[in-house]
Write a structure and sequence with these properties.
Layout lengths: L6 E6 L3 H8 L3 H4 L4 H5 L6 E7 L13 H5 L1 H16 L2 H6 L7 E10 L4 E5 L4 H4 L2 E8 L4 E5 L2 E3 L5 E5 L5 E5 L5 E9 L4 E3 L5 E3 L1
Antiparallel strand pairs: 1-8, 2-3, 3-10, 4-9, 5-8, 5-10, 6-7, 6-9, 11-12
Length: 203
């Protein structure tokens, strides 16, 4: 979604519980589904675990995969934190008078390989243009540099950030360990957004 600026910090989150569960995920699970890295060249240095995701790019009625339910007790507090931050705004309260509640349309765990890169790109497709793209770093270090538009940051573990995915963005992992983020796409139905080309979008 096109937001004001490149990054917006949403909150800080205690990742102790979710980190422990993520570190227990086997390599077989990390390597079980190659859809995202095979479909999108920019993600070829990553592995993805789908918690909430549909390959048809739908904007409503998302599929919750079995591993979402397995991790639900550590995922729910993250979801609640994000809902509080978005749903308590004046804009969201006005939207709720005529629209359904906000919801997660996608949620994925993504591991970027040691020394791997995600080349700069712009997210396209209707649903990616109409959601808040949120990152929660779980395993990371100062040698992981996330660039969005004109800004570059080493996002710290436990910081929740929204990025402007309508600006060019990419990541360089110069370290010797994989970087793991929980990436979430949150929709506020009825929200109106002006895209980078000046067009009006309704989420």
């Amino acid at each position: 979604m096109n937001i004001k600026g490149d990054f917006i910090k949403i909150d800080d989150f205690d990742i102790t519980d979710i980190k422990a569960r993520v570190l227990d995920i086997s390599e077989d699970i990390w390597n079980a589904d190659a859809f995202r890295q095979k479909t999108f060249e920019v993600h070829k240095h990553t592995q993805t675990i789908k918690l909430i995701m549909d390959e048809d790019g739908r904007h409503t009625g998302p599929t919750l995969h079995p591993i979402y339910h397995e991790l639900e007790n550590v995922i729910t507090p993250v979801e609640n934190c994000i809902r509080r931050n978005y749903n308590n705004t004046l804009k969201a309260k006005k939207l709720r008078k005529k629209n359904p509640a906000g919801y997660f349309i996608r949620m994925i765990l993504v591991r970027l390989n040691a020394k791997g890169i995600i080349p700069k790109h712009v997210d396209t497709g209707e649903t990616l243009m109409k959601c808040h793209r949120i990152h929660l770093p779980i395993i990371t270090n100062e040698k992981n540099i996330f660039s969005v538009g004109e800004s570059s940051k080493a996002l710290k573990a436990g910081e929740i950030w929204e990025i402007n995915n309508r600006h060019e963005h990419g990541v360089v992992n110069s370290s010797d360990e994989g970087r793991i983020h929980l990436i979430m796409d949150y929709v506020l139905p009825g929200e109106k957004v002006k895209d980078t080309d000046g067009s009006n979008l309704t989420c």
